[in-house]
Amino acid sequence: xxxxxxxxxxxxxxxxxYWDVKRRVxxxxxxxxxxxxxxxxxxxxxxxxxxxxxxxxxxxYYNNVGxxxxxxxxxxxxxxxxxxxxxASPEVxxxxxxxxxxxxxxxxxxx
Length: 111
Hints:
- A two-stranded parallel ribbon has the order 1-2.
- The chain has helices spanning about 5-10, 15-30, 55-70; strands at about 35-40, 75-80.
- It is built from three helices and two strands; from the N terminus they run ααβαβ.
- The protein is an alpha+beta fold.
């Protein structure tokens, strides 16, 4: 959190965190699947440290992290969230959808 999208992708912040968790879990039980409770990127609202809330950042995050995650055979994940939620709070939480509140995709979902 709080990392500029370009730095997060260049440094593979998500992937490195995933592999670290997987390594630690495998030390306890090698056959356990990893579940990512939620992942996503906001498109509006206040920026958080170096992380800008934009559609371009969401698309980069989805294309580089989401698509990578969907290809992992030993992991499952929940995307936060499918649709924007106008009643959510704080403001930034309203805009995590990959589609707006009218269910219109913010970008094409292809990997």
